[in-house]
């Protein structure tokens, strides 16, 4: 990556202007998108450590900055800033697993609607060392609302032995090739995890993929065992394409099919029936299969169901022995404070990891669909991620990797937003502000990074999270949702003080070596 170095003598900070900066487009939603095509796309590039005693700063802001890099120097003495942020590395919390998005049917269709060159650019943005280095990809098992049709892999009635189980065109010609390409671009193995929306209609009480319905019979019965075996068959079929899965969830949003007459694919479970199905069917099937190391996450639904859901499932030893983590979604978070849901669950069950498995903007009927350049949505992402991570969450997964300008395709017209929006008519894609929100975390918080303590000299509206990475370097992430620029200093007792500012409506990532 070519760089031009500009020395700003008044502040002592070195600003680095990249030759591959964002090509901005403002369509009036608060900020800009960055326009990319087959031959050009802005990129953060590879992020090495600065020299000892120096720090790197990356800032994105409402005014249009996108991961703008600068370099500064630690000082021995305090700068006198009113706000001092002090690292407390001896206070150790959870370790990070990583960040990612979902390869839905819709995401795959949108990526493949571009030219091969633009496809490669898009995949590089997410997965390559020059991009934001996603480590996780959620893969729906068969169709969901972000498909163009309703299907499962076993639609032949009464096929309890799953003799007719088969992957579909969406898997073989869309999702699988793209996942293989993403893996080839990634410097490390991708962590895939699968979620099912609905069992085949003939296994369900309502005889349909949509609406209110659960599995026929009882846990331990033939319907429940067939549904558990369906998961194993999915893993086997994807394995034929050299794609292995890090994890599974026990089913997308189980309350959707249990408590509401959902308009799209759903399968209802209560915490009690999910517990018993795991204990009697899914857990034993997975344990005795060729995939015993695959991590199983329960819930995969809104966090307001915690800690109750976890208490019901994990208090039963036969179910708990097969479970590794707890997945949750961000919808309705305003009804579910993180301390009484996430932190409370962690303290009850510290051996089970917490992992955010789905989030998107544009789902609210009052603010529906795509908003090109919305900075408010970028701040919503960063706020939620920091809040989650500061309450023991180990990773955060976005929803669709790419959507079209309508926020689809989606067969039930449940249109939402995405960090990347494609326009195949121009063979371009737009990187939304939310893409850069994700970048401020996914690019810098390596797997194994550990959240550590932090204290403040005075109350601040800045939202902050601090980590020590496996190489002993430090990462400090700051969100400023206010209208004012805020000056602060960071005190790392091994190095001294660094002085920085968080522009109004900005996300800031600081990186330095502590060796």
Automatic annotation (TrEMBL):
It is a peripheral membrane protein. Its EC number is 3.2.1.45. Pathway: Sphingolipid metabolism; Lipid metabolism; Steroid metabolism; cholesterol metabolism. Residues 1-19 form the signal peptide. Residues 96-445 form the Glycosyl hydrolase family 30 TIM-barrel domain. Pfam families: Glyco_hydro_30, Glyco_hydro_30C. It is found in: Lysosome membrane. Gene3D superfamilies: Glycosidases. Keywords: Glycosidase, Hydrolase, Lipid metabolism, Signal, Sphingolipid metabolism. One of its GO terms (cellular component) is lysosomal membrane. It catalyses: 1-(beta-D-galactosyl)-N-dodecanoylsphing-4-enine + cholesterol = cholesteryl 3-beta-D-galactoside + N-dodecanoylsphing-4-enine; beta-D-xylosyl-(1<->1')-N-(9Z-octadecenoyl)-sphing-4-enine + cholesterol = cholesteryl 3-beta-D-xyloside + N-(9Z-octadecenoyl)-sphing-4-enine; beta-D-glucosyl-(1<->1')-N-(15Z-tetracosenoyl)-sphing-4-enine + cholesterol = N-(15Z-tetracosenoyl)-sphing-4-enine + cholesteryl 3-beta-D-glucoside; a beta-D-glucosyl-(1<->1')-N-acylsphing-4-enine + cholesterol = cholesteryl 3-beta-D-glucoside + an N-acylsphing-4-enine. GO terms for biological process: autophagy; cholesterol metabolic process; glucosylceramide catabolic process; lysosome organization; negative regulation of macromolecule metabolic process; protein catabolic process; regulation of macroautophagy; regulation of membrane potential. InterPro entries: GH, GH30_C, Glyco_hydro_30, Glyco_hydro_30_TIM-barrel. Residues 448-510 form the Glycosyl hydrolase family 30 beta sandwich domain. One of its GO terms (molecular function) is galactosylceramidase activity. Belongs to the glycosyl hydrolase 30 family. This is Glucosylceramidase. It comes from Sinocyclocheilus rhinocerous.
